[in-house]
Amino acid sequence: MVAIRTTPRGQRGARRRTPLWRAAPVHPPLAASVSSPVVTVAVDGPAPVMVGATSSPDQDNRRLGDYARRVQHAFEAIEPTLRRIAALSQDADFVRRAQHEAHARLGFELPVSVLERAWIGGLDMRALFAYASFATVRALSDDYFLNDPLGMGGRAAAFERFLLECGFHAMNLTPCSDGRLAHVIGYVLRLPMGVVRRKAHAGALFDVEEAVRRWTETELRRHREGLPNTADAPTRYLKVAVYHHSSRDPAHQGCAAHGSDDARAAAAGLAQLRAFREAIENSYCCGASIDILLIGVDTDTDRIRIHLPDAAGEPALERYLDSGSLHAEIRGLGTQAVRDHIRAAVSAAGGANPPTAGMQRLVARLIEHNLEQLDYVRAEHGGQYPDAGHQERFIGVGGDLAEVQLRNLTFFAFMRTLEEGAADLDIGVDIFRRLNLARGLPIPVVVRFDYPGRVPGARARAVERCTRVAEAIARRYPELAAQGLLHTWSTVRDSDHGGRIEGVGGSLSEWEGL
């Protein structure tokens, strides 16, 4: 049976690395020291495997599961640790004992000045919670960029070659900024960040002008540098939009930006893709170089539906290929039989007017990767995540946070200025009113702007942009900021030379050491 879903229109490797986290069963410390150049904690065990390179799908899934648990435990440890520290606040040796608890349970120490003021006005628990959240983000980020825990570096060159073979010189993906899609690259689709660019926007409603600017940069690089191929090569730029829906509670846990209306979310994503393609055609008369693809993700199971385009490159909302049905059909089949089955399903989904062979090949690869993810969700969560709704830990503002590849970890608000991203940020703050403010906890906001280190003055401009956005956030939510219920931490990163992120300021001076 071919797994095509048709609905009436309008309806719904290798070398050993030292990991950042201990391999402890409960709440492992995430970092030994936040301020050290390389934050690591020694651990015994087998050498990590490069995901998607030389390892098997089962090995990949175990590794991804271990990584997700380590990060989850690191964030889960914050609140109980701070409760223990709060109970020590009247102790004569409070600062030393508090730092011992923080270092043992979280892997880093807390700001001494905040602890030393406890005897005067009590502990500022909101500041400590925000600091601990940011320090955990710092350790997560260091691990990603310095240790490549998901093995993305090992897959980048191979996938770039594969894309070119399929007829695409670039793949740019916009998921909804909902945290339940934060893992769409590294887990749901098993793709390498860097080769595949991600820019999250609420409702997957990306800024068309910004998308045109990104396309222009890509094409200029092909003309000037011949990367990833020369401009005369017959390849195309692929823009992907990823909307989401909920199979468990479709009326309430779908996309908030579209009122949990699946059909509306899909239609809006497709309309944005068409607008981008039309903008390129009207501006540069080269529409043949643009392909579009629409993907839906069930946030409860990670199964995907791919709206396969026809030969003219036009996706249809009412026709899609569903990975969940394919997952049931391929049980018990060998590797080659699974791939043959997937290819046959993709070919059948194209009907009498199928897309190019390259597009079919890419879609088949995405389906294959997602079937591995469905095996992962089945092994780790019995086929369905226990949390249907939002459980994000912090809001990411500014540029994309490449290191965030885990479900329900971050709500993204992509922007260069607050004005252009205010609507997205408002949605994130509303989510955190329920998650954090209702319990008296602050909203941690990480501001991030990457910069090209080879460009003179780029770092200074990135720092200035961080400062400007952080100040605008405080002005937009003055009551929350004044009560210590919203804290920001500004970071920059040199995208040309890689390495760690750099903390360049925050809403409290004590955070300058982050």
Q: Write down how many β-strands occur, each being a DSSP E stretch of 2 or more residues.
A: 12
Shape: globular
Mean pLDDT score = 88
Strand content: 5-15%
Q: What is the helix fraction of residues, given as a range?
A: 40-55%
> Could you tell me the radius of gyration in angstroms?
23 Å
Multimer state: single chain
Structural class: alpha/beta
Q: In DSSP terms, counting alpha (H) and pi (I) runs of 4 or more, how many helices? A: 16
Strand order, biggest sheet?
Answer: 1-7-6-5-4-2-3
Order of helices and strands: EHHHHHHHEHEHEHEEEHHHEEHEHHEE
How are the SSEs ordered, and which strands pair?
Elements: E1 4-6, H1 57-76, H2 78-87, H3 94-106, H4 112-116, H5 118-121, H6 125-147, H7 153-166, E2 168-175, H8 184-188, E3 196-198, H9 208-225, E4 236-245, H10 262-284, E5 290-298, E6 304-307, E7 319-322, H11 323-329, H12 335-349, H13 357-381, E8 394-398, E9 410-414, H14 418-435, E10 443-451, H15 458-476, H16 478-482, E11 486-494, E12 502-506
Parallel strand pairs: 2-3, 2-4, 4-5, 8-9, 8-10, 10-11
Antiparallel strand pairs: 1-7, 5-6, 6-7, 11-12
